[in-house]
Amino acid sequence: MPQSDLPVTPEELATLREKYRHERDRRIRPDGARQYRRAAGDFGYYAKDPYSERAERAPRQDRVDVLIIGAGFGGLLAGAFLRDAGSASIRLMDEAGDVGGTWYFNRYPGVRCDIESYLYMPLLEETGAMPSERYATGEEIRQHAVRIAKHYDLYRDTLFQTRATSLTWDEESNEWQVTTDRGDDFRARYVVTSSGTLSQPKLPGITGIETFQGHTFHTSRWDYGYTGGSPSDPLDNLADKRVAVVGTGATGLQVIPELAKSAKELIVLQRTPSTVDIRDNRPTDPEWVASLSPGWQQRRMDNFLHVLAGEPVDELLVTDGWTRTPALQRHILSGSVDDSVSEEEREVRDEFADAAAMNRIRARISEIVSDPITAEALKPWFRYMCKRPGFSDTYLQAFNRPNVTLVDTADFHGITAMTETAVVVGDDEYEVDCVIMATGFEAGVSGVISGTLPVIGRAGVPLLHAWGQGPRTLHGFYTHGFPNLFQLGAIQNANSVNFVHILQEQAQHVAAVISRAESVGALRVEPSAEAERQWIETVHATARDVSAFQAECTPGYYNAEGSQAITGFTFSPGPVVFHRMLREWRDGDMRDVLVRKEGDIRQRESSLIGAVSPLRISRRV
C-alpha cells in the first residue's frame, strides 16, 4: 500500500525552508552549468558509438521530399504520420547507427522508462505490440523503435552515422540544401528536426580526469567488453573490481542496484540525492490486455495527460507516482491551476502539500536504509519538482549491501579531483579500477540551438541571428524567414512528463501541415511575421513565472545549475489546451503559414491567435 503523506505545521515548514536553503547553498557552484563538458567536444572517447561499426558509403547528391534529422521517437513519429499522409520520399538521418535516439545509446544495466510503458511506447496498437512489463526495459523500448521503423518502411532511405553540418535555403528551388560530415550534399523540400531532447552526454569537468589510468565510460556508452554481462545478465567481470559511479539522478537510480550486485566494491559519489518514490513494476496482466478495446492507448495517454495538466477526468486510468502529485508539478510542467483561491493562498497550500509529500519520501528512506548516517545522506532536502522525481523499488535497498559505500560530495561542491588511480573528495582518496559517469545528457540542446548545425534562411539570414533576442516561432514549430523548416521539441509550446506523447502530437501536426501544403500546391510553409509576433506575445502573456521557486531549488538542469536561467518559455495553460488549439487551427485554412504565391509573406492577422487571445486563453483555464 502507498504510504500517506506526512503533514507539517507552520513552525515545521519555516524550519524546513531554512533546511532547504542550507542544503542548496552547500551545492551551489560559481561555475554553474560550466562545470560540465560536452563529451563530443572535450572527450571524444566518451561520445564514441560502441554499438555499431562505422559503415563506409558514397556521399549522397540527390533529392528527397522530407528530411527528418533525428531518429528517436520524435523523428520516427514524424516519419510514421508523414507516411500515413502519403509521403513516399522520406529520409531519416541520425548520428547513431540505428533508430531509437536516447534508447539507442542508453543500454546500461537496469535502464527502463519511468512512465508507464503503455503510455510511453507510441503506436502500440498500430504496430500490434504490447509491452511485457508496466515499465519496459530499455532494450524492449529500443526494439519497439525498430518495429516502428520497419512497420512504416522508414529504413528505406536512411543515413545513419551521419551528422548534418549545414542547412541552407535555396530561394530559386524553394528547397533546403543539406550538407553532412559524410560529404553528402543533397536537397530536401521539407526539413523536420527532432534532435536534442536527450542526445549529447555531459561530463563533469573534474580536475585531473584526463590523468586517470583506470577504465572509465559514460552510462550512455556502456562498455560490456569491460564489465561483462548484458543489460539483463550479471556483470561478471566486475567481481574483482572497485567501481565508482558519479551521479545519482534518474540513471544512477537504475544502474547502481545492478552494479551493486556484481562489483567487488561500489562507491557511489553523490552531490545531490534524488527523490526515490515507489515504482511498483510488474508484468503485464494478460487478462487486462484481453479486456482492452480499440483506441485504448490513445484514451490512456489522454487521460494521463489530462490528470497531470490539472484537467478534469471522469476516471483515473493510471495510478502511479506522477498522478499522485500533479499540483506539485506545476512549478515545472505546464497546466491549469486552481483559480478558486488567490495565487498567494494557492502557493501556501501547495507548499504545505509539497512538504508533506517530501516528508513521506524522506521517511521511506529511514525505513529502508539500515545505516542511519547513510540514510540521512540519501534524504532529498528540496521542493518536490526541484529535480525530476525518481522511482525505484531497488535503489535504496542497494545501500544495505556491505560492498556499497555512499560518498556525499556536497560540502566540496562535487568531486575535488581525480588522480591516476583514485577519485578525490576533499582530503579523502578512493582508489578505484573503474569510474562510470552517470551524469546524463545536455537537456534540450540540439545542433540548431547550439549552433553546431548552422541554419541559413531566406536572404542569407542565420537562424541564430534571427533568434538574437530569443527564439521566435509560431506554435513552437516554424520561424518567419525559414520556410519548410519544422522543429520538434519543447520551445514555445506545452510540456508534460510523458514527452513522447508531446512529440506524437507535434508529429501529427507537422504531418498535417505538410500534407495540406502539398494538397493545395503551396510554394512553401512559412509563418508571417505578424503571426509569429502574436504567438510570442501569447506565450509571454500566459507564461507562469517560476523564477522564485527555482531560485530556492538545489542546483540541477531544471534551473541551469542554480543560475535560474529560464529560456524559450512554455505555454503555461498546458498541453491539453495547446493541443486543442492546434486542432482548431488545423481545421481552418492555415493561411498563417501557407505561401501560395510569391509575395504572399505579409503582415497578416493570425486566424488562431485572433480567435483565441491571451486573455481568452487565461479565462478558459
Automatic annotation (TrEMBL):
Cofactor(s) recorded in Swiss-Prot or TrEMBL: FAD
Record carries keyword Oxidoreductase: yes
SUPFAM superfamilies reported in the protein's UniProt record: FAD/NAD(P)-binding domain
Domain of life: Bacteria
Residue ranges of every copy of the FAD/NAD(P)-binding domain listed in the record: 65-275
Record InterPro entries: FAD-binding_Monooxygenases, FAD/NAD-bd_sf, FAD/NAD-binding_dom
Transmembrane annotation, as ranges: none
Keyword tRNA processing part of the UniProt annotation: no
Keywords: FAD, Flavoprotein, Monooxygenase, NADP, Oxidoreductase
Enzyme Commission number: 1.14.13.-
Similarity comment text for this entry: Belongs to the FAD-binding monooxygenase family.
Family annotation (PANTHER family): FAD-BINDING MONOOXYGENASE AUSB-RELATED, L-ORNITHINE N(5)-MONOOXYGENASE-RELATED
Name listed for the protein in its UniProt record: NAD(P)/FAD-dependent oxidoreductase
Organism taxonomic ancestry: Bacteria, Bacillati, Actinomycetota, Actinomycetes, Micrococcales
